[in-house]
């Protein structure tokens, strides 16, 4: 799915940036080029970053419960 139509950035590229160490909306935008033009995609980028953080937190909680 294309997240940023101005810079043609997909959700896969956003996920790749997060997997590669981007830890903020700004870092993801700098890494991928998303939200660098009209800015209308910023809320979708933010939602993907939040979703990624929630998944990381859930994994940490499961790991913590298992140990
Ligand atoms: S849609 Fe992303 S900057 Fe315009």
From TrEMBL:
Q: Which residues form the BFD-like [2Fe-2S]-binding domain?
A: 2-48
What the entry lists under Gene3D superfamilies is as follows: BFD-like [2Fe-2S]-binding domain
User: What Pfam families does UniProt report for this protein, alphabetically?
Assistant: Fer2_BFD
Keywords attached to this entry: 2Fe-2S, Electron transport, Iron, Iron-sulfur, Metal-binding, Transport
Q: Note the superkingdom of the native organism.
A: Bacteria
Q: Which GO terms describe its molecular function?
A: 2 iron, 2 sulfur cluster binding; metal ion binding
Identify the InterPro entries for this entry. Answer: BFD-associated_ferredoxin, BFD-like_2Fe2S-bd_dom, BFD-like_2Fe2S-bd_dom_sf
Name the family: Belongs to the Bfd family.
What name does this protein carry? Answer: Bacterioferritin-associated ferredoxin
Q: What organism does this protein naturally occur in?
A: Nocardioides cavernaquae
Its ancestry begins with: Bacteria, Bacillati, Actinomycetota, Actinomycetes, Propionibacteriales
């Amino acid at each position: 799915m294309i997240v940023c139509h101005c810079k043609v950035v997909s959700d896969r590229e956003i996920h790749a940036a997060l997997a590669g160490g981007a830890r903020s909306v700004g870092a993801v935008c700098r890494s991928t080029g998303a939200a660098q033009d009209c800015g209308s995609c910023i809320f979708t980028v933010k939602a993907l970053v939040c979703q990624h953080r929630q998944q990381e937190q859930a994994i940490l909680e499961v790991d913590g419960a298992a140990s």
